[in-house]
Write a structure and sequence with these properties.
Oligomer: single chain
Distance between the termini: 41 Å
Pfam family, one: DUF4209
Domain DUF4209: 131-210
Organism: Zosterops hypoxanthus
InterPro entries: DUF4209, ERMARD
Protein name: EMARD protein
Helix content: 55-70%
Radius of gyration: 31 Å
Mean pLDDT: 88
Amino acid sequence: MALPDLVTTCLSQPVHYAICKLGFEKTDTYDINNILSGNGELCWEAVTEHVCYLESDQSVDYIKSIQSLGPVCESVNLYLKSLTKEQFVIQYASWFHWTNCTEVFLQVFDVLQYTQAAEVGLGLMKLTSCLERALGDVYLLKGNDCPFLLRDLLASEQLADVFGQDVMNVLKVFIGSPRGLNLRNVLWHGFASPQEIPAKYCAMLLFLAAGLGQLLQTYLLQTKSVLVHRPYVIFISLEELDAFPGKYLNNEILSIAEELVKLSSFVLKIMLPFWTAALTAFKQSRYADSVILLLPQLEVGLRLLFTTSNKCPNRLLTAESSAFYTTFDEMLAKHLDNGEVNQLPVVLEEPAMASDFLWDFLNHQEGPRIRDRLSHGEINLETFPREVANQIVGFAITILCRFSDEEMFSLKEHMVIKPLMNCASCYRSRFHPISRLKKQVLECMKSIHLWAELPTVPEEQVQKIKGLEGNAEADTLISMISEIISQLQHYMPQNCCSSDDPINSVLTERLLVELCDTRICTLYSPRAVLEVVAVLRRISAQCHQVSQQVIAGAGLRYTQWVNKTLRSRQRHNYGRMLSSIKFLSPVLRLILLLITLELVSVHSVCKKNPFDYQQYLKFLKSVLQYTENLVTYTSPEKNKWDETMEFTKKTLIKLRKTSERKLMLVHLAM
């Protein structure tokens, strides 16, 4: 591996020149009064005149624009430093209200007064994310479906209509094009070191944000429009994210982490101030700041491993406008762009753990997608939960430890770090579709178990309902279910089936928990597996909806029965419901068992043996159709219990006939 000490920059030569030198080539002093009106407002014309255009197609000439704007940025930086906090708040705070995060912009002003390199980088990352979110809100004044990428947002006609194209071109020079300074991307993707980010660009963006607020206020008054802010994303079910419990991240472990960053080969020495600032922010309960600082450093550290293990050292540097960055998405992929196998998982001691964690927290659609949501301004930075920060900090410490010389630590330090390392070793994916399916199955089973607690009228009263037949049909269905179970028991754990009561001894929550606990490798799941899992998830979701409808319907009908408010036809229908519940519970539990067995066997078969999964999908979709019909017929609007019994019988016959297909599949997996 290339020694981290030897890397002096992660910026390619053209990018380094654009950011670190181009804006300093003109040394003439720019008079701040040229762009300030008498009341301190920004004179946009005096700024936009510094944007230069190519003669060929009148597109922005980014090189000349950066050169021309350099002295302006320096003048703005000096001007802001000359203001006290009180003066700045009085003059400019109201112009940040349109961003819905005024406090963040005021904090950036504080940073500029002391010019600590890492904090300037942090300020720019926060500023760009909040600015992007606010510009997206403005976009929605005139359009729908706000663009996901900042460059597309800045290039939109909607924002040009509100602010003017000249103003948007100014923003493009700083944050909207890989041919410009591209400050957002080089920071959020971990390419820029603290010393490579001029503070004057942070000051200029802060000043421009206030200027945008001035323009927007005029636009809103003229059009009588109201700016509506989209709600922030709120993390729910925080317990699902708790891979690294906060109790393990005490002051002692954080002190060890501060030493680790100085010793670990995972850390580029030029990035050390970012790591130190991240740990300091965490100790100060500035959890959003800590995570914002750490995510790019995890990316650049993994990029170092990726480029060395795949023998492409040039990919450590920023890409030009004609190429792509080497980012998390590519580093976590199974294959490289050229089709070769990605060697990064081989370098990681526990590839499944590290990759599963990163996929869970950064990529999976049902996961928290922390990096996306933070960088695009979707999260309230002031209320960022510690529970989420714990995960990123905990993971970062384990990675630092893995790529450090273990002999450097005393036994005591090892004992302190061991619980974190154990958490890492035990990690299993939580947001992969397979993991979500397991969760769905168990939640549905818990719901079905509630049926046993449903209030019900005595059996003798039900039998007195005129026109209501006995339970012969339900008994027939239950017998068919028992037969199917007997065919499946050879492929389930031993001693889980009682010959006296196969349904209640097999179709249990305990068995499903045991089967769902089977470890399945979710990393690089084949497309066939993902397609099958998608259908299984839809089946599970339909079963859960049926269960919820039965619980709600049975409770309502019982109350009406007790209060004697049911008409004759409703009493008859209620009786059919009670009869149907007797077989519906084992039917749904059987389907959940089949889903779980399918999950384990299909994944194994796809890994080991080719098979016609399209034909298999057809079979699964027929089960899905049955569950969709169940949802319809058991709904409060339909209440078609006779029809439910009839097509359940047809489906069980079909399941029994096709069970050989199922058994063949399970056999292949064993």
